[in-house]
UniProtKB/TrEMBL annotation, chain A:
<dbReference type="InterPro" id="IPR032823">
    <property type="entry name" value="BCA_ABC_TP_C"/>
</dbReference>
<dbReference type="InterPro" id="IPR003593">
    <property type="entry name" value="AAA+_ATPase"/>
</dbReference>
<keyword id="KW-0547">Nucleotide-binding</keyword>
<dbReference type="InterPro" id="IPR051120">
    <property type="entry name" value="ABC_AA/LPS_Transport"/>
</dbReference>
<dbReference type="Pfam" id="PF00005">
    <property type="entry name" value="ABC_tran"/>
</dbReference>
<keyword id="KW-0067">ATP-binding</keyword>
<dbReference type="Pfam" id="PF12399">
    <property type="entry name" value="BCA_ABC_TP_C"/>
</dbReference>
<protein>
    <submittedName>
        <fullName>ABC transporter ATP-binding protein</fullName>
    </submittedName>
</protein>
<dbReference type="InterPro" id="IPR003439">
    <property type="entry name" value="ABC_transporter-like_ATP-bd"/>
</dbReference>
<feature type="domain" description="ABC transporter">
    <location>
        <begin position="10"/>
        <end position="230"/>
    </location>
</feature>
<dbReference type="InterPro" id="IPR027417">
    <property type="entry name" value="P-loop_NTPase"/>
</dbReference>
<keyword id="KW-0813">Transport</keyword>
<dbReference type="GO" id="GO:0005524">
    <property type="term" value="F:ATP binding"/>
</dbReference>
């Protein structure tokens, strides 16, 4: 029998993060199975971006373990690509002095692949433009292309719908749904989260308050109190 | 006409040296005040090899290679550990390096001026009785031109250059994209120090000669060139170098050599007052 590599996806087990006296995350456990999309929602300051930063290695957990496909994950940012992890940033984070194509080429030297990924994300016609000259929605697409060009096994999307219009969010949803990789999504836009996610984790003040399918989360009273209720 | 060619020849050296300063500034936001001392150290190595082997070109190659190594070692061993919470920290460490290198060179080679061999004649060609430029001036133009073109190709046509630019602008984002930012920094320091070494090998065979402090005055002119051109602009540093070279040549020729440093200072003050980002920098966005 040929050896089959384990494919457990990303597993976070009992992750806690403390900054001095402030607890940013406490006892967070989560699994992102291969090919699935898991959403993380919660009010501002709930610890969503800290969770991303733990996975990326920008923040070291105070306690807890991370594994990716059965192997311990002790992430260092510049090694994420080798481990098959890519991330987009809340504020787009494109290099303003580089063209759209150059932005994508930073992570991948294969020009054909970079252009094909831009095409897939609907930004190919802007390949020679500088980001500052582009509408925000196009910049978001370029940022997504820059993450996807590395052909990740796990894609971390940090508020990809922020600043987008209704039509653009629908198109983004279609794009995410069509991805073959695992996706961990932090997002405030509930329609998008409920549409594209297989599972959702709800955080409040760094603690998990609910975890389940979109339908389960919709009817969860703790979620309504912590997040949806506050928004209503 | 002679003053123009002389100014352009000097300016080409300042341009190369200013380019070295800009390379490091763009990557680390540090003005490498040790650039001159590092260039002199590598020039000593080069001219020692030249004297021992009788081959100027072998010594030239050794000086450039020593620049690459010294730049990489400086970044890996010293500058990497500088606390960047205050911009002054890098400056203080670089100034400390100047003292260490110049003191070390003085202990090893002594503090007297030593002649530095030029590979080509410095006697200017004359056309119609007017002295124009020498073979050595042509060598300076060619060497600096080749380096500028090679660096431009590196940064605009290669994946490594693209990653260096990305790492300099946004190191954290670059790391997420798999860029080895610390490796890019080391490479940047190595390249900058090699370009500085080239500038040293081109300027020391003139009236300067070899001395631990020989590049101090070149550093002042080149720093002015970098500021005039814009510390963030590689093209600006080259043009700034040519402007400073021409200014020094004209002022020395018409008003006397003693006035030249004052002219450079006036140029620096005027540019800083009128366009603090440099003549060739892009306008900075202002948040209101």
């Amino acid at each position: 029998m040929p050896h089959q590599p384990p494919s457990d996806g990303l597993i976070l087990h009992d992750i806690s993060v403390r900054f001095g006296g402030l607890t940013a995350l406490e006892g967070v456990s989560l699994r992102v199975p291969p090919g699935r999309t898991v959403g993380v929602i919660g009010p501002n300051g709930a610890g969503k971006t800290t969770l991303f930063n733990v996975v990326c290695g920008f923040v070291a957990p105070t306690s807890g373990q991370l594994t990716l496909d059965g192997r311990p994950l002790r992430p260092r940012p510049h090694q994420l690509k080798k481990r098959g992890i890519a991330r987009t940033l809340q504020g787009v984070g494109l290099f303003p002095s580089l063209t759209v194509l150059e932005n994508v080429l930073v992570g991948e030297s294969d020009r054909d692949r970079a252009e094909a990924t831009l095409e897939r994300c609907g930004a190919a016609s802007y390949r020679d433009e500088k980001p500052a000259a582009l509408p925000y929605a196009i910049r978001k697409r370029v940022a997504l292309a820059r993450a996807l060009v590395t052909d990740p096994r796990l894609l971390l999307l940090d508020e990809p719908a922020g600043g987008l219009g209704v039509q653009e969010i629908e198109e983004l949803g279609e794009l995410i749904t069509g991805l073959s990789c695992s996706v961990l999504l932090v997002e405030h836009h509930m329609d998008l989260v409920m549409t594209v996610c297989d599972e959702i984790l709800v955080l409040d003040f760094g603690k998990p308050v609910a975890h389940g399918t979109p339908d389960e989360i919709r009817t969860d009273e703790a979620v309504a109190d912590a997040y949806l209720g506050a928004a209503a | 006409m002679f003053l123009t060619f002389d100014g352009l020849s000097r300016g080409a050296v300042y341009a190369a040296f200013a380019l070295a300063l800009v390379l490091i500034w763009r990557a680390t936001r540090i003005v490498n005040f040790a650039q001159g001392a590092m260039a002199v150290a590598t020039a000593y190595a080069g001219f020692e090899v030249s004297a021992a082997t009788g081959s100027y070109w072998l010594g030239f190659a050794v000086a450039i290679a020593a620049g690459l190594i010294l730049g990489a070692v400086t970044e890996r061993v010293v500058m990497r550990f500088v606390d960047h919470s205050s911009p002054l920290n890098g400056v203080v460490v670089a100034l400390g390096l100047v003292l260490v290198i110049q003191g070390g060179l003085g202990m090893i080679f002594g503090s007297e001026f030593r002649p530095a061999e030029a590979p080509f004649s410095r006697d200017a060609f004359t056309v119609g009785g007017v002295a124009l430029l020498s073979r050595f001036d042509l060598f300076v133009f060619a060497a600096v031109g080749i380096v500028v073109v090679l660096l431009a190709l590196l940064f605009t046509r290669t994946h490594t250059g693209l990653r260096m630019r990305a790492a300099a602008f946004a190191p954290d984002v670059s790391r997420l994209l798999g860029v080895n930012v610390s490796g890019m920094l080391t490479l940047g320091w190595a390249l900058a120090a090699a370009v500085g070494s080239l500038a040293g090998m081109l300027v020391l065979p003139t009236e300067l000669g070899l001395h631990p402090n020989a590049m101090d005055i070149v550093f002042v002119s080149s720093f002015t060139a970098a500021v005039v051109g814009g510390l963030d602009s590689a093209i600006g540093s080259v043009l700034g170098g040519l402007i400073v070279g021409l200014l020094l040549s004209y002022v020395s020729g018409y008003l006397g050599a003693t006035v030249a440093p004052i002219a450079v200072l006036i140029l620096l003050v005027v540019v800083l007052l009128g366009r603090p980002g440099g003549l060739f920098s892009r306008s900075a966005a202002r948040t209101v």
